[in-house]
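Blinded run. Sample ID left blank on purpose so nobody reads anything into the name before looking at the predicted structure. Input follows.
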Amino acid sequence: MPIIIKEPMLSNLEVKIKMAANLVTPDLFLEFSNQLTPEQDKLIPRYSTVPLLEVVHLILRTLVKSHIEVATYRSRWPWSKARAYTMGKNININTRHEHSVKNLIKTYVHELSHIASKQSNESFDHGSNSNQHKKLDTAPILIANMYCDFLVKTGRLWRYYRLPF
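Blinded prediction complete.
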């Protein structure tokens, strides 16, 4: 008897994209915002006009109110360092890079911060795309790292992070 596949097969990247999306939800993001310390609440990231907590709430509002779509693309230039970009409310993931679930979560949060920044009257980007401006203390990178640390600390990420692919 032959093996019959009823649904289209998903690539490893597509499986990881779905896993990461399941870990970037409004409920988890709200829980993340509630566990921020008073010192973190008042911190103003580099290139930001608002405190960290307000940036987190703007990202949460974007998660709740916007229909975010994720697609993949393959950059024309093989040496492109771009892992993803946003176009409107879409997040586009570059398939030329290897992506772990953890890195995809960071990418989602990073790109969500760009979408939230464009939708609000506030500015909290990372300057240009040069390595000089993409510092760990800018809102998109800082919040993405803090969110992943929160998922690891609460035991939600380790199940997916240790997958062999």
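Unblinding after everyone has recorded impressions. The mean pLDDT is 82.
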